[in-house]
Amino acid sequence: MIRPATPDDVPTILRLIRDLAEYERALPEAKATEGDLREHLFGAEPKVFAHVAEHQGEVVGFALWFLSFSTWIGRHGIYLEDLYVAPAARGGGHGKALLTELARIADERGYGRVEWAVLNWNTPAIGFYESLGARPQDEWTVYRLTGDALTDTARS
């Protein structure tokens, strides 16, 4: 079952985020707290959204997303920040169900795309995404300002 996340799901979502960070070899970078998630998912004006996958009453996966905008097509899209299914629940269709729900939302609301990034070495995820018809955007390189570089640029 796929459903929108509720405030009660926050501890589980945070645990899954940490599991994802560990899988992606970046656990020290996962600094989000339950308070951060509560504020941004369920505060006065949420700009980030989450859906969870349940199996036998237990949350086994999540998709965390926000709206993007394409100036070229003149429409919003969904940017999928994280999609994660616990290893024990993989192969049960939960990842596909989460992506299907995001595609349904995008289609229903007239959004132009659903997009996300995947690590180059994550071949299981790449194979899964391509099996759904997703295609890599190889001509684009993602850049990021963070930490001291972000602060230095902001203050220059």
From TrEMBL:
Residues 1-155 form the N-acetyltransferase domain. GO terms for molecular function: acyltransferase activity. It holds the Pfam family Acetyltransf_1. The keyword Transferase applies. Its EC number is 2.3.-.-. The keyword Acyltransferase applies. InterPro entries: Acyl_CoA_acyltransferase (IPR016181), Diverse_Substrate_AcTransf (IPR051016), GNAT_dom (IPR000182). Keywords: Acyltransferase, Transferase. This is GNAT family N-acetyltransferase. It comes from Actinomadura yumaensis. The lineage of its organism: Bacteria, Bacillati, Actinomycetota, Actinomycetes, Streptosporangiales.
